[in-house]
Amino acid sequence: MAQSKQEKIKKAVEMILEAIGEDTNREGILETPNRVATMYEEIFSGMNVDPRDYFTSSFCEEHEELILVKDIDFHSVCEHHLIPFFGKAHVAYIPQNGQVTGIGNFAKAIEAVAKRPQIQERMTTTLANAIEETLSPRGVLVVIEAEHLCMTMRGVKKPGSQTVTTAARGVFEKDSAKRAEVLSFIRR
Ligand SMILES: Nc1nc2c(ncn2[C@@H]2O[C@H](COP(=O)(O)OP(=O)(O)OP(=O)(O)O)[C@@H](O)[C@H]2O)c(=O)[nH]1
Ligand SMILES: [Zn+2]
């Protein structure tokens, strides 16, 4: 992150600490604006990353059957309150014309979309669209399950509540049996 952006974050954090009545010169707090600026660099590192870039390389493999990468951990930041939501993402696709990609690329793309202020629906849709647009599979299904701290530590305060979102494209949009097959693998 550029120096000027880091400076802006530090100043803003200092102002928040002052506003809540903290002594910004107190030993434990003195370095906090710095720490937060460094942390933001990490947790918002996906701001200008296009998830489609992870799917531009594919290799030709004659496997036109289901591939499911499940239980991919992620942490993101709710754009409404700037506190975390986190959980697991599952990505299923059925390749077409042998266009298969490295399974690690799904985890990289999830990191990219998670590391920016987000809402869960957009994260789900962005991933499904990125895979559809680049690999042109017969179908893609993205399922995300997450706990939102804005719903558990504040506001309605419902600890343990989980939000599930899905985005289905191609064959998964039309074929409920195919969707059900993926969901049963996810539940296992
Ligand atoms: N659809 C959707 N809503 C979300 C997500 N993350 C947080 N929210 C909700 O977005 C809403 C923000 O609404 P506001 O009315 O502006 O915020 P608020 O008054 O603090 O609302 P509460 O959180 O309900 O107390 C809240 O209902 C949140 O629960 C998300 O990923 N998707
Ligand atoms: Zn929120």
TrEMBL record:
- Tell me what reaction this enzyme catalyses: GTP + H2O = 7,8-dihydroneopterin 3'-triphosphate + formate + H(+)
Q: Which InterPro entries match?
A: GTP-CH-I_C/QueF (IPR043133), GTP-CH-I_N (IPR043134), GTP_CycHdrlase_I (IPR001474), GTP_CycHdrlase_I_CS (IPR018234), GTP_CycHdrlase_I_dom (IPR020602)
**EC number(s) on record?**
3.5.4.16
Q: GO CC terms on record?
A: cytoplasm
Q: Name one Pfam family in it.
A: GTP_cyclohydroI
* Enzyme superclass (EC): hydrolase
Give the GO biological process terms.
one-carbon metabolic process; tetrahydrobiopterin biosynthetic process; tetrahydrofolate biosynthetic process
What does the record give as its pathway?
Answer: Cofactor biosynthesis; 7,8-dihydroneopterin triphosphate biosynthesis; 7,8-dihydroneopterin triphosphate from GTP: step 1/1
The entry's Zn(2+)-binding residues are C78, H81, C150
- Relate the assembly described in the record: Homopolymer.
Which family is this protein grouped under? Belongs to the GTP cyclohydrolase I family.
NCBIfam families hit by this protein:
folE, PRK09347.1-2, PRK09347.1-3
Please identify the protein, giving its name as recorded: GTP cyclohydrolase 1
